[in-house]
Amino acid sequence: GYAPFWILGLAGSVFFIFAHERACWEAWHPQKVPPLWPGLNLEVAALTLLLQLAFLRQLLRPSMEGAIANVACTFLAIFYGAVLPAFFAKLHHLALPHGNGWRQDGAEFIVLTVFLSKLADVGAFLIGATLGKHPLYPRVSPKKTWEGLAGGIGTCLAMTAAVVYLVPQSALATLGMPRALLYGLLMALSSLVGDLMESALKR
């Protein structure tokens, strides 16, 4: 089996989060936090360093069997546990044009991202449980169906359109209906892919 470096994975996740936060502060508050090294992307540098450390850790083992798999599993843990959640920090600082200026809508988009993703799950479950007949990917997730997929997407798009129409001051309305619907579609598809990823990891 695989033998990833769990301590390095945990420590690397914490290290990346600190590097990511530093990079965010450098980008958004350059007067308060000057760059450590002008032009250096701290996130890329952190991942590069962690990759090197993972290979060095593998070299300390008596056997090189499964070396690539061990390093890959370690990096998967770092990406899954730190890199992907770090995008919420970027999303938090999102600003969109509003009137004659800009409005920071990041907090609202974080709530929308979580809400629409979960709503797509609920819609997919309810429609799939009642109308589902055609399996989507039985080898990975036997209970998911194409009908459930359509239900999840439809539910997500319907809620997105309702928010834009009923709450004209919302961040989604600021996008405009076409882009808001595209955002809702991406949330629904991301929710499905995330579920399939989790199912694949369980197996």
Count of DSSP E strands?
4
Regarding quaternary structure, how should these chains be classified?
single chain
- First and last CA, distance: 13 Å
- State the helical fraction: 55-70%
Strand order, largest beta sheet: 1-2
Characterization of this structure:
The protein has helices at 6-28, 42-59, 67-83, 87-92, 106-131, 146-166, 171-175, 177-202; strands at 95-98, 101-104, 135-137, 141-145. It is mainly alpha-helical and 203 residues long. Helix 5 packs antiparallel against helix 6 (146-166) and helix 5 crosses helix 8. It is flat and about 60 Å long.
In a few lines, what is going on in this structure?
By secondary structure, the chain is mainly alpha-helical. It is built from 8 helices and 4 strands; from the N terminus they run ααααββαββααα.
Give keywords.
single chain; mainly alpha; two-stranded antiparallel ribbon; 8% strand
List the helices and strands and how they pair.
Blueprint: H1 6-28, H2 42-59, H3 67-83, H4 87-92, E1 95-98, E2 101-104, H5 106-131, E3 135-137, E4 141-145, H6 146-166, H7 171-175, H8 177-202
Antiparallel strand pairs: 1-2, 3-4
